[in-house]
Structures are given as C-alpha cells and as structure tokens.
Write a structure and sequence with these properties.
Structural class: mainly beta
Number of helices: 3
Number of strands: 12
Radius of gyration: 17 Å
Distance between the termini: 35 Å
Shape: globular
Number of domains: 2
Order of helices and strands: EEEEEHEEEEEEHEH
C-alpha cells in the first residue's frame, strides 16, 4: 500500500528487456532495503530483487508491461519512487495500491503563475471513476482532479511547485505516456452497486 507521496525521483541506470519481461535498475535513494520489499516505480508496485549502495533492481512481468508504461524506460529516464507505507504512517495523499489501471497521455503542461496546469487523456474505461476534486494517481503521484473536460476522458490538474520540482512530472512532455491508477474506493463502490443497477 502506498500514499502517492513520491519520496524520491531518480535516474534509471540500466534496462534489460526481452520479448515479454523487463529488468530495470535505478539509483538507490534509500540505502539499506529489506529483501523482497515493495517499492512503487512510477506508481507500479515492484519487488526489490537486488540492491546495493548504488542501485536497486526490479523485475517487471508480462502482465505489468501490458498494463503500464514501464516498457518505455531507458537508461537516464527519471522515475518516481515510493516505499510501501507502514501502518503507523500518516496517509498524506490517498490510498494507492500500486496496481496501475491503464496508461494515459499527457496532452498539455503549461505554467500558471507559480503552479502548472496539466491536462491528461486517460483511457475511456477509467473516466467513470473520476470526479472533480477526486483523487487520481499519475506515475505514482497523488493528485487532485480539478476538472473533467469533454468528451469526458480528459482531466485537468493543477501542480503545485513542490510537486513539480520533486517528481518526474517536470520531465514529462506532451504525448508522453503516464501510468494511471484511479481511486480504488470508486471501483469498490461500483462493484458493490452492480447487483442493484437496472439492466
């Protein structure tokens, strides 16, 4: 379980890819890690395979590659990291599972005073889980939806200076893919209400 509060933004050191899987090594921002612990990499919950003082290695399965944008990583790419939260931690963002629902595309990123306005097109199937002032996780960053733009699968978000300077959002350009995880509570509500919905 994560909060969507990015704790480190680091560089990818190397990527080894095959037809159906990927191993990625990133800069170690944490020092000592527990064997097998979970870290969200651009919002994707991955298990630490190996680590040393310089880097952390992760494996991404075919399912992970099919549902995320991790397959586009290369040496030098910037990635957001967050260690799994402790039960005693503050939940400063929102409940994030690290289970990416789909891949969106950045449409625009423009400065507005000291903040930034970002527009992202998300998969149409995920749009029903989005509401103004609701939460969404993009590349592992907990964000608030300000507005939903017609035809309904484009969202507008304001990025505050701290978030912009401490995450990979500053390095994303128009057309680039971003991992999307919608609010899990909205998905559970939909599932629970299905038996009562009219055909």
């Amino acid at each position: 379980m994560f909060t969507g509060l990015v704790s480190a933004c680091v560089s990818v050191l190397s990527v080894e890819s095959s037809a159906s899987s990927l191993r990625v090594r990133v800069v170690n921002a944490y020092g000592k890690l527990e064997p097998g612990e979970s870290i969200a990499v651009n919002g994707t919950c991955l298990t630490v395979e190996r680590w040393d003082s310089e880097g952390i290695s992760f494996f991404a399965s075919p399912e992970t590659l099919a549902r995320t944008a991790l397959g586009s990583l290369k040496a030098g790419s910037r990635v957001n990291l967050e260690r799994a939260m402790l039960a005693s931690d503050r939940l400063g963002g929102h409940v994030v599972q690290g289970h990416v629902d789909g891949v969106g595309r950045l449409v625009a990123l423009e400065r507005e005073g000291e903040a930034w306005r970002m527009e992202v097109e998300i998969p149409q199937a995920l749009a029903r889980y989005c509401v103004p002032k609701g939460s969404i996780c993009l590349d592992g960053t907990s964000l608030t939806i300000n507005e939903i733009i017609a035809p309904g699968n484009r969202i507008r978000i304001q990025i505050i200076p701290h978030t912009f300077s401490h995450t990979r959002l500053q390095a994303v350009s128009a057309g680039e893919a971003v991992n999307v995880e919608v609010d899990v509570i909205a998905k559970y509500v939909e599932r629970l209400c299905q038996p009562y919905s009219k055909p």
